[in-house]
Each structure stands twice: as structure tokens, then as C-alpha cells.
Amino acid sequence: MIPAVVSVNVVQDVKVSGAPFGMAPGGPGGGDDEGGGDDNGPSPGPGAGSPGGNAPSMPGDPFDQLRRYFGQGGQRDYKQHGLGSGVIVSPDGYILTNNHVVGNAEEIHVTLMDKREFTAKVIGKDAKTDLGLIKIDTKDPLPVATLGESNSTDVGDWVIAIGNPFNVGMTVTAGIVSAKGRILGGDYDDFIQTDASINPGNSGGPLINTRGEVIGINTAIYSRTGANNGIGFAIPIDMARNVMDQLKAHGRVVRGWLGVEIQEVTADLAQSFGLPKPEGALVASADKEGPASKAGIERGDIVLSFNGHPVNDEHELPALVAQTPINQKVPVEVMRNGKRMTVQVTVGERKEPQVASAKSEEPGGNWGMQVGDITPEIAQQFHLETTKGVVIRRVAPDSPAAEAALQPGDVVLEVNHDKVGTVADFIAKAKDAQSKKKSALLLVQRQGATLYTVIKPAEARG
Fold first, then answer.
1. Is 417 part of the annotated catalytic residue set?
2. In degrees to the nearest 10, what's the CA dihedral of 65, 70, 71, 76?
3. Is 425 a catalytic residue?
């Protein structure tokens, strides 16, 4: 098994404006920094850390902290290095690892157990599950890991973690499965918790059962120091296998979509809805253009099963839907007004929002805002009624966007009287305005009202 584990070293060119290291406003986190994110990506909360390198965010981008530098001043270039692990899943050089290890790397270098080194390329990445698939080219067949079944793993089973912590070399640690189904903040979280020692550099390495089968991909640690405290998390291999197959085939993950916003069924809610115990997922709202609404599912329905699989709580439904083929009709059992009923829903495709920052390549050309396309999910998140324009997802402190009083949730309809339909439209118009180093007039919609605001170039402020 050990020969199938590799070390992954990454390099990224980072442009940093103003603030010196260690003084970035805010801190690392999941959120929306990779489109997933922002989609973000799951985050275990305070004290969590990624075992992928020096940056303490999980699962996220090891370079996220550097991208949060929005201070004024000259621009400097840095080579940021990151460290992780990976596991060879095919003899022709496919390697499974974490997205937060390789997702934004300029260079990826893989070192095998026999000391051979290769340059790898990214085949696909998925921020929502924090998985990445890379490939190296070699004439000789490579040793391959055996993938097991994480669903058959029980709490208390002995497991082994393999990786390259702190770049000291390939290291094996042992422990047990401490828990299953851990939720750390993401829509598709289903982590295996283990007390096998996992440290920075272990990200992307395998968690192995006593039969030598991979049952998880080590991803995160819960720690106030950044080092192991006996609480580590691994992505179940059953989920990782599905994502890996899609990345290999398409370079991205296609997920099913119902078009509902759901919430937990508490004991009080269960009693109110006539359920004998808290179970299922309560529909808080249903997109009128979504598959669920078109099939007759309404706000206040409790989803009890999906395509024959029981829905024990609200965390299970998104994963079940995501893994369902697009356009497949499936039975969905709901409780409405104390009565059980089954409706047939044709699953749609979840559209991942395109996300970009309003930046030009010139120093000082950063408006300090991140925008995204308005998908049904984004419309629900920001309670938007419009599908026109692009929504502001993040505004950096002390930036031109902040000075213009722009806020997350604002919808940009026009830039200099030119209509904005997509992120690509916005970026093109923003770059044009920035290249002229002049103020730009934005038409913004906020809570149903429209207003104009002027955004000034960074060098013209103050």
C-alpha cells in the first residue's frame, strides 16, 4: 500500500498588495473563495486546520490567506509553496488528492516512494468535496491503491493514515474510526473522524483499513495549534470514488438539483408536524422554477425518503440528490398535513455559479469585490427576485467597492450604462473601466430598489 502514496509539492505565484505577512484583515476560512465555494466549501469552525501546508484553513485554498490582502501600497510577487500527499488510483498515473492542495497551483511536483519525481497536471477539481485529480506521465506501470467501501466501516475499526507530514518523509500513523457522518459546514459533508495522527502535509493521503484498503482521503484536522490533537477528518472513499470518476470523465462534477431550501426537523417541529420522531428534511422554500416545485413539492413538506433512500436528517438529502443522474425521475416521499404522499420528481442539474474578482492586471486596479452569476441557489441565499445582472458576494474592507458603499447581496445591473448579464460581461466592463483609470458608474439593485453609485480607481481615492 505504501508505494501507492506520493508526496505532492505545489508552487503558486502570488501578487500581494500592501500589508505585510501576518497582518491580513480577517482570516482563512471556507466560504466562497474557490467558486464553491464558495460555494463554498465546508469549514469545521474555530480551531480547524488543513493538514495540507502552512495555511490553517480547511478545506479551502492553502493560498487563501494571501489572497485576502487588500491593503494599499505597492504590489509584490511571492512564490508560495504548499505541501500535501496523494494516492495513486491507476497504473497510468492518475492520483487522487485534495483540491485545497492542488486547486490553485501553478506548478505541481509529485515524488514517488522510490524517489522518482514528476511534474503533474490537474485533470479536475471539486471545491465542494475538496477533492482533486491530477496525473503524471510515466512509461512504467505504477503501484495502485486498493479502494475499499467506506459504508462498511464501523466506529471503533482500526485505521492507518499515510502521508508526508511536515515534509519529513512518508509516515504511517494508526488509530481508530472515532465517528462517521461528521458535518463541518458544507452541503456534502460526510466525514470520517479518526484519532490517527494527521498533521500538515497529510492532506490528500489515504486512510486505510486493516485489509489495506483505502476508505478515506485525509483532509482536515481540528486543532487550535495547527498540529494534531487527535481529531482528524477524511472524505469517505465512496464519495471520493464518485467524484473521481466524474473528474476523470468530464473534468468537473455534475450534480443533481431539486431547487429547495431545507432545514432541520427539530423535536418541536416533529411534534407539530405529527412525526413520531425528528427525521427528514423540512422544505423551507421551493424555487418555483425548480424540479421539486414543478413536481408538486411545497414549502412545509417534510422529505422522508428520496429515490428509495430514507432521509434521516437534513444533511443527507443534498448528497442523495447530488449523486442522482440528471433528468432521472425518482420517487420522493413527503409528509404534508400529517399524511404521507409520494411524488415523482425529475432531477435537474445544479448550475455552479461562475465567480470572479473585479481585478485588472495593473497595480492599483483592484475594485476589491467578488461577483457571481445569479443561480437559483444564489438567489435563495441572498433572497433575490431577479435573475438579471451579477450578485456581489464579497466586498473587501477599505477597497474602492467598500468606499462606494457596495454590499454583499447587491446586484450589479449596469457598468457605465452598459447592461451586465453575466460574470464575463461584468469582468470585461470592469477591466475596460479600470484600464482607463477613471471612475465607473454602477447601477445596483438592493432589496428591490435600484440606485446608482460611483466606484473610483484605487489611485484616485482619498
1. no
2. 70
3. no
